[in-house]
Specification:
2 helices, coiled coil, 111 residues, single chain, mainly alpha, rod-shaped, 0% strand
Length: 111
Amino acid sequence: MEDRVTADNNNSLLWIKQFIETEFKFKQELINRQQEEIDNLKKNLEGNQDLITDLKEKLQSCSQTNAGNNQLINKLLGDITKLQNDIDWYKRTYERRSLLGTIKEKIKRYF
């Protein structure tokens, strides 16, 4: 009977050992997969950080270009206003003048 108890104990110990080994292998595989996933995520994070840096540089460049364009637009609007004033002056001078004033001006130019 003692041999049977020892055999049962040995069988139980063997089963526990196999169970622990199986669990250990499973846990180790799980750890390995998680480590691979962590490594992949780190690589993606590094790539994303590089992309963010590039996009920040492009944004800064676009902001500078935009500021330059705004200055140019403001200058052109000023030029347009000056030209519009010149056009108005010519209209007042040549289109709205009397016929006598126009003839007088041409005679002055001729002599």
